[in-house]
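Dear colleague,

Following up on yesterday's call, I've attached the two folding results inline so they're easy to grep. Please treat them as preliminary; we haven't cross-checked anything against experimental data yet. The first protein's sequence and structure tokens come first.
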Amino acid sequence: MRISHLGPRGTYTEAAAARFAPGAELLPQPTVIAAIEAVRRGEADAAVCAMENSLEGSVSIETLDLLVQPDFELAIAGEVTLAIQHALVGSAGIDLATATLVYSHPQALAQCRHSLATLAPRAQPRAALSTAGAIEAAMQEPGTLAVGNAFAAALYGATVYAGDIGDARDNRTRFVVLAKQDAARRGDDKTSLAFTTQHDRPGSLVEVLGLFAQRGLNLARIESRPTRQQLGTYVFFLDVHGHRTDPALAEALEAARAITLWLRVLGSYPRWTQA
């Protein structure tokens, strides 16, 4: 199996891909979109993309926006959850008290803001496309720091100045696996969908959500994004336990289609239950 993911080597996304499919051929890409495009072109069988973090919410807005594009051909075929442990790293011999710059992905910087204020009080945050890319950049600029994982630090020859510097414990990121078709029913599944409501009718969102509650279907996640068409209108993303072919869920989806402006099933896949 060939899995594309956000690179360079040493990203959390690479670790998630390896956890999802041990032994798979991992194909690092410069951006999330490039990882997805590799699947669309047939160069990879699946792409692993960060979706949400337990502390900061949505990780990759571009993934959400791509999922609802009219010509988007891929489906969510799996998920994997990864425990996140950030480290403060850099080249050897840095005085943390005088360091003036720290690189990392915006999510990682947000998750460590209080620790960084204590450990490196003068270091200004600088956004990078990935935590591994941040370490790579820091190693090219003597005296600068980065927030990333210990594996990437070893990969790039960086010194670890402090380990597990996240401000909160039990930091986890959920990744989705995108492929040309979703997964067959396993019996413990999850289905993701997106829809827009009748924006000018009071209670339209509650009406849609009620269709699932009435059938005893558990909602695992709900999130909204602007439609990019009109101010105050939104696309709602919903995760529900069950496979799209389960009778109760299939019935709920059919009923929802009748009262929404637009609805797309993004995919059904086995629910990740590993610790």
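Below is the second protein, in the same order (sequence, then structure):
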Amino acid sequence: MQSIHKFNIITTLVFIIVFSSCQKVITLNLNSTMSRYVITGNITNQAAPYTVSITKTVDVNQDNIFPGVTGAKVVITDATAGIVDTLKDMGAGVYQTNLINGVSGHTYQLYINAASNIFVASSTMPDAVTLDSLYTQMSPFGRSLQVVPVYTDPTKKGNYYHFTEYVNGVAGSDLNARSDQLINGQKMTSPIRTSKIESGDNVLVSMECIDSFVYNYYFTLSQTENQNSATPANPVSNISNGALGYFSAHTVSTKDVIVP
């Protein structure tokens, strides 16, 4: 996601998706001069290893470069399988798993000790939902092209989704989170928020099945982007002790299409 800088007190965090070399960008409210930890971690149903990123914020009048936090103790526990994995410090604030594999239905617990600052989080990987197909269409006003992911929501209630789109390999909008509150059990053909696309572009969409806590993060992140306040609130994090960011165990399904 490349977020639009609406306010001069908003800065961005770039982190690497574990299954892709493309980048996401989180927009955060950093109106405080106090440095804060920013943590992002993903466990997926794709092949390991997985990574956790730890950085620290800087003052708004400094360059938007988030220093990586090294030397932290980072542990992910598969509470369902009883596997404890101490991550390897790869440098620049990136920590990599050694033992953990992502499995639907399993609960994963994150523990971080960074200079005696303790952070914990938990996420349960939902059952996988397949992204069946992808197509483009003209918007109702005929001014732009839209991307439409097609999938069927399970009849069991309580499913949450997050979509990221990539245009010619470049990450675009990341503010696409949905719940099945109003569409439970239905076939979905609703367009997602995307970057500008043109004929000949290759568009790839990644659909993640996420838990409710991570959905709340993305939902509040999108609300933050839409606020007209000069000091928008930070998105709700599922990580303790005032950390920014999120920890997510989710499934991944992708499709791509060449725009006609």
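For the second protein, one point worth flagging: Residues 212-226 form the longest helix (15 residues).

Best wishes,
A.L.
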